[in-house]
Amino acid sequence: MLNYPVTLVPDTNGTYLVGFPDFPEANSVGDNIEDALKNAVDALESALEIYFDERRPVPAPSVPEPGQHLVALPALETAKVLLWNEMYAQKLRKADLARMLNVHTPQVDRLFDLKHSSKIEFVEQAAKVLGKTLVVGLK
């Protein structure tokens, strides 16, 4: 999973402002630390959609400062981000990946929609046509 460090700053009204060192465009707020961290996941996913829309690589998580909170991107979203970055590294477009997978482009569009519950088998198949293997583990 991708674990991104977050900054939590207490606001004057008792809430917490959330920011991401790796994503200046991702901001959120929460009534308390737990709420702020929960809302941070939504902010992170919104920022990732910007990267996908603008066809930019998603930055890897920076090294957290000691004691800094982390936000874990869920497993399926992590796989999609890693797949996106590999496609970007190989200078491929969604249409190229669709041709390689022998599917219609809207299926690949959904693959990079973080709100869509893609089947992990399709993510695995996409990784394979890019010459990669999807690895899943428990910790």
UniProtKB/TrEMBL annotation:
The protein's superkingdom reads: Bacteria
Looking at the record, the residues that make up the HicB-like antitoxin of toxin-antitoxin system domain are 4-63
TM spans, by residue?
none
Name of the protein this chain belongs to: Antitoxin HicB
Species of origin reads: Rugamonas rubra
Q: What is the lineage of its organism?
A: Bacteria, Pseudomonadati, Pseudomonadota, Betaproteobacteria, Burkholderiales
